[in-house]
Amino acid sequence: MSTDPKAAAKEATGRHAATYVADDMRVGLGTGSTVHFTILDLGERARAGLRITCTATSERTETLARQVGLEVVAPDVIGALDIAIDGADEVDPDLNLTKGGGGAHTREKIVASMAPRFIVVVDESKLVERLGPFGTPLEVLDFAPATTAGFVTQLGAAEVTTRPERSDSGNLLMDAHFGAIEDPVALAAKLAAVPGVVEHGIFAGTLVERVVIAGDDGSVRVLMH
Ligand code: 5RP
């Protein structure tokens, strides 16, 4: 365990989430520095005999999962999942999430939606009263990006910035800055209807079974609806 409290918290929650995984499960693996520890833990258990099949939300996660000895297949091959585990950038009291800090939110939303149990792993710093301060990640088709960003501005974003890197699918990654979002579910519906937005990073709390939260002291607590 790391001596850095933030890193220790990520490891505590990441490893806790791995305890929800049992033999013969089909597991969706998220992306990020917290679920990294879930993947390490599952790899350790797989080497000790745990039998699971996984699908990955990013090339980075797929590489790590294979390196630690997990079987990884494409979402369409696995077909359905028993559980998915992923990090988040913001969590509000209704368990609505902002995701996509790592630019993987489109694949993450597909994988989370395939699982009846979606477990979210965060440290305390991710808890917010309202989504928004992080920015809302967008994956955008590289056809008319300025026009698409303009549509998002019309929804109330003060600024829409473009990241230098692209998604694993080759699309642009942008961040829309709405300030504190009053109604994330309504905004999610509006963003989903913007031509050119492949996917946005607001995940409705109804997708989430539980949020596992680690404090800087390594303690772990669970939030559920
Ligand atoms: C990637 C994500 C991550 O889950 C999110 O950014 C949290 O990452 P971390 O656990 O490193 O803080 O949505 O697209």
Produce the secondary structure layout.
Elements: H1 5-18, E1 26-29, H2 35-47, E2 53-56, H3 59-67, E3 71-72, H4 75-78, E4 83-86, E5 90-91, E6 97-98, H5 105-113, E7 118-123, E8 136-140, H6 145-154, E9 159-166, E10 172-177, H7 184-192, E11 197-200, E12 202-203, E13 210-214, E14 220-224
Parallel strand pairs: 1-2, 1-4, 2-3, 4-7, 7-13
Antiparallel strand pairs: 5-6, 6-12, 8-10, 8-11, 9-10, 13-14
Helix pairs in contact: 1-2
Stretches where pLDDT is under 50 for at least 5 consecutive residues are: none
Count of β-strands:
14
**What structural class should be given to the helix and strand makeup?**
alpha/beta
Largest sheet: 7 strands, mixed
- Taking all Cα atoms into account, the compactness measure Rg is 17 Å
- Write down the overall geometry: globular
Strand content bin: 25-35%
Q: How far apart are the first and last residues' alpha carbons, in Å?
A: 30 Å
Mean pLDDT, as a whole number?
97
Bound molecules: ribulose-5-phosphate
> Which percent range fits the helix content?
25-40%
Strands side by side in the biggest sheet? 3-2-1-4-7-13-14
Number of helices: 7
Sketch the topology as an H/E string, one letter per element: HEHEHEHEEEHEEHEEHEEEE
Describe it.
- The chain is α/β, with parallel strands linked by helices.
- 30% of the residues lie in helices and 26% in strands.
- The chain contains seven helices and 14 strands.
- The strands form three sheets. It has a seven-stranded mixed β-sheet, with helices on both faces. A four-stranded antiparallel β-sheet has the order 9-10-8-11, covered by helices on one side.
- Helix 1 crosses helix 2.
- The radius of gyration is 17 Å and the shape is globular.
- It binds ribulose-5-phosphate (5RP).
- Ribulose-5-phosphate binds next to helix 5.
